[in-house]
Amino acid sequence: MPSGQGLVHIAAGLALLHHVVNENTARVETMIRKFHVLYVGQIELDNVGRDGTPANDRRYSDERLREAFFTARDIARHMDALGFDVLWTAEHHFQREGYEVFPNLIQLGLWLATQTKRLKFGCGFNVLPMWHPIRLAEDYAMADIVTDGRVIMGVGRGYHTREVESFGAPLLDANANREQFEEGLELLLKCFNEPQFHHKGKRYEAPPPVPYRGYTVEDITLVPRPKHLPVEIWMPIASGKTIDMMAKNGLKAMVTLNGEKILDDVIRAYHEACVKHGRNKQLGEDVIWGAGVCLGASQAEAMRIIEPAHDERYKWFAPFGFVRYADEQGRTWGTPGAPAKTPTLADGVAQKAWFCGPPAEVIDGIKSIEAKYPGLEHFMIHWAEGMGPKDFKEQLSWFAKDVMPAFRK
Questions:
Q1: C-alpha span between 231 and 154 (Å, rounded)
Q2: DSSP codes of every residue in 333-375
């Protein structure tokens, strides 16, 4: 029989083991458990695929372009019933080509909240240089109050010259665009976080020192302020400078359709920047990882189903630089020595940016990424722009039935 001292050591060892087991259990429980969908706002496109209608040649009537709003409602109701967590949409303007037709995400999210019970709606993303930050803050605050927190704030810098420059904001001048975005974010955060504030920068002064009812205005208050503070703000991960700015200001990160190598680089860079700014997180925490998904009886069948939609996506997006893959030497596609082509679906599958096949294989693929990041809670399905709503709803139903339960045990 152990001595008294031995019993003490045994008890201490058991306590340590219990602590380790609990920590490991907690770590598993905090991995992927929230499921999102990104719908950028395409209408149901015709003649899709690599050899289909050239993207620049597409034109649609007002009636056709309106369809996307009701598609969003139908998809939102379907997601709500299936147990998904968030539907993200994208702000864009002037898109007569039919790929991205939602100009106001807060209005859209507010309306969709009235059409559903519990699903949340993410702004992916409000293009901040095209907004006055105070107007954006007011609109968001109202949506946050009347939906009780079901609209999620997201901001971005923009990437369509046709949009950003037409609104009088810079984009061709990347430094000016960054400056305007960062000052706009500073003012937006003051609106949310300070009971009264004054801001004077290069582009905005709020309030100016004007006479008002017998006194000179020195500060203002956002009325109303959001109900849920601090406001959760998401942003797509872009350059190194952007990552540091995000971490400094407490912004959360979205990374979608990146190859495995680039995904790892940006998640680690974001984590390191957060630690640098005193925001201690687990690796992958406060990151939404998005990928393409198509279920089928086999990988070959799933790839056959999704390939025209995949190819339609890259006909539109590849010219904007949205091919985030690396070659075998770790060089980003499009940089010297690396491929500079429009990717095929086979490329995307090899890069683990797209997962195609039976549910068990898709689960294994997602888990192979999940295993690297102990803080990763969020997975997002990217709705390939060429897939019709009926087929996508069937994919969501299958995913909810046979994939999501593997992560919500």
A1: 10
A2: TTSTTS--SPPPHHHHHHTTSEEEESHHHHHHHHHHHHTT-TT
In the three-class reduction of DSSP (H, G, I as helix; E, B as strand; rest coil), residue 255 is classed as strand
Encode 159-228 in three state secondary structure.
CCHHHHHHHCCCCCCHHHHHHHHHHHHHHHHHHHHCCCECEECCCCEECCCCEECCEECCCECCCCCCCC
Helix, strand or coil, per DSSP, at residue 404: helix
* pLDDT at 14 exceeding the cut of 80: no
First to last CA, the chain: 41
Which segments of 250-298 does DSSP mark as H helices, in order?
A: 260-276
Among residues 34, 13, 32, 49, the alpha carbon closest in space to that of 79 is found at 34
Which residues belong to CATH 3.20.20 in the chain? Answer: 36-86+237-409
- Chain centroid offset of residue 104 CA: 16
CA distances 186 to 122, 130, 203, 252, Å, are: 21, 15, 12, 16
d(C-alpha 81, C-alpha 91), whole Å: 25
Phi, psi for 38 (deg, rounded to 5): -110, 120
| pLDDT tens, residue by residue, 163-212 | 999 999 999 999 999 999 999 999 999 999 999 999 999 999 999 999 99
What radius of gyration do the chain's Cα atoms show?
A: 23
Residue 43 structure tokens: 């209408």
List the structure tokens of 225. Answer: 């302020």
What gap in Å lies between CA 221 and CA 225, rounded to an integer? 8
Spelled out in words, what is the top-level CATH class assigned to the domain 36-86+237-409?
alpha beta
pLDDT of residue 29: 52
Phi-psi region of 92 (alpha: psi -120 to 50; beta: other; left: phi over 0): beta
CA contacts within 13 A on the Cβ side of 356: 21
Indicate the helix (H) or strand (E) that contains 314. helix 299-317
> Which SS3 state, helix, strand or coil, does residue 36 take?
strand
Residue 44 has pLDDT above 60, yes or no: yes
* Whole-angstrom distance, CA of residue 409 vs CA of residue 29: 9
**Beta bridge pairs of residue 35:** 379
C-alpha angle 66/72/78, rounded to 5°? 145
Secondary structure letter of residue 23 according to DSSP: H
Convert the pLDDT of each residue in 286-327 to its tens digit: 999 999 999 999 999 999 999 999 999 999 998 988 888 999
